[in-house]
């Protein structure tokens, strides 16, 4: 039985995030989201789109990376949140860069 794009992406994230006790996964946005100290970090929607939380402070930097796309569930852009195009994260190193950028921001937030 083959995995859905969401399941495959989630497994790729699990490989990168490892067994950090401060990271949990949670069903949100119809997909699986990883939380760092209770704050949303990154995850996959049920349609298999990677979303990352880079914060408004790092958003301009993140937008310079190929593959960054507006995240807009409701037709309104969500500041500090981005989708990442599949082709931009085809290899592990590219996915790791996005996870590191999200972690850089989320690790500055107070734990929930």
CATH architecture type: Alpha-Beta Complex
Low-confidence stretches: none
Q: What percentage of the residues does DSSP assign to strands (E)?
A: 25-35%
The average pLDDT score comes to 93
The CATH top-level class label: Alpha Beta
Identify the overall geometry. Answer: globular
First-to-last CA distance: 37 Å
Query: What's the helix-strand series?
Result: HEEEEHEEH
- Approximate helicity band: 25-40%
Protein structure class? alpha+beta
Query: Order of strands side by side in the largest beta sheet?
Result: 1-2-3-4-6-5
Biggest β-sheet: count, sense, barrel?
Answer: 6 strands, antiparallel
Counting structural domains, the number is 1
Number of strands: 6
The total of helices stands at 3
CATH topology: Aspartate Aminotransferase, domain 1
Radius of gyration over alpha carbons? 13 Å
